[in-house]
Design a protein that fits this description.
Helices cover 74% and strands 8% of the residues. The chain is an alpha+beta fold. A four-stranded mixed β-sheet has the order 2-1-3-4. The radius of gyration is 65 Å and the shape is rod-shaped.
Length: 273
């Protein structure tokens, strides 16, 4: 078989021209498109990596902020819990203190009320007892008993101490009004004369006297002038006894803070006042 070199050469030339044309108009645009796509893909991948890195950074920042927020939240919650617990304890203490104060005030008020009631009962009982005693003695007193009182009265005048006698005598002598002799019953003329003579002898002078009745004396006689007074009556014994009982009850009602002075027993009042 004979080879047609012209044909072979023409085919080779055609092939080369075909290859150049393919490379020129087909392969090069495809390669350029592939390169452009690769570059675009690489750029997109780079952008994606950058965005991923930025997203990771934002995620880390968010997580850090979230952790800081949780720590701050826990701290604020713990602080609020402590403050609420402290405020609750303070309110409980105030309420307990207020309740204790109220209870103490109530107990003090009850003690004061009980003490006032006891004092009122004691005072009322004392007043009733002495009122009954006065009324009984007043009912039992008679004119003959009052006459007996004249002897006691004249003896009291003689038994006065020197200073009291001098003061009363000076008051009787210098008084512008007569001295007043009071008695629970109307004294007969004999008793008046006896009293007049006793006073004149006691003060060595003629004393002008005025006689009056005073039922509240409860069996007694008294001489009064210019604010001075001397006499004797059962009422004075009762007054002294009532005063002593009152002092005794006051000592009893006092809180125990040591031994205080004991009230003295009743004494009959006498001498000038």
């Amino acid at each position: 078989m004979l080879i047609d070199w012209f044909t072979v050469l023409a085919q080779v030339v055609n092939f080369l021209i075909l290859v150049w044309l393919l490379k020129r108009f087909l392969y090069r645009p495809i390669l350029d498109a592939i390169d452009a796509r690769e570059k675009r893909i690489a750029k997109e991948l780079a952008d994606a990596d950058a965005k991923k890195a930025e997203a990771q950074k934002e995620r880390d920042e968010f997580q850090h902020k979230n952790e800081a927020f949780e720590q701050q939240r826990a701290a604020l919650l713990g602080k609020a819990t402590d403050e609420a617990r402290a405020e609750r304890q303070r309110l409980l203490d105030e309420a307990r203190q207020a309740a204790d104060t109220l209870v103490a005030k109530r107990q003090e008020a009850l003690r004061n009320e009980q003490q006032s009631l006891n004092e009122a009962l004691n005072r009322r009982a004392r007043e009733e007892v002495f009122a009954i005693a006065r009324k009984t003695l007043a009912d039992l007193a008679t004119a003959s008993l009052e006459e007996r009182m004249v002897e006691v009265f004249t003896r009291r005048l003689c038994e006065m101490d020197a200073k009291a006698k001098a003061d009363l005598g000076a008051a009787l002598k210098s008084a512008s009004a007569p001295g007043v002799v009071r008695s629970a019953f109307e004294l007969p003329a004999e008793q008046r004369a006896a009293i007049q003579n006793a006073i004149n002898e006691t003060f060595s002078a003629d004393i002008d006297l005025q006689f009056e009745t005073a039922p509240d004396l409860v069996s007694g006689i008294e001489l009064a002038t210019d604010g001075r007074k001397v006499g004797w009556s059962i009422a004075e014994y009762l007054a002294a006894l009532e005063k002593g009982v009152g002092e005794l009850l006051q000592e009893k009602d006092k809180p125990e803070a040591g031994t205080g002075p004991k009230p003295k027993g009743p004494k009959p009042a006498s001498g000038s006042r």
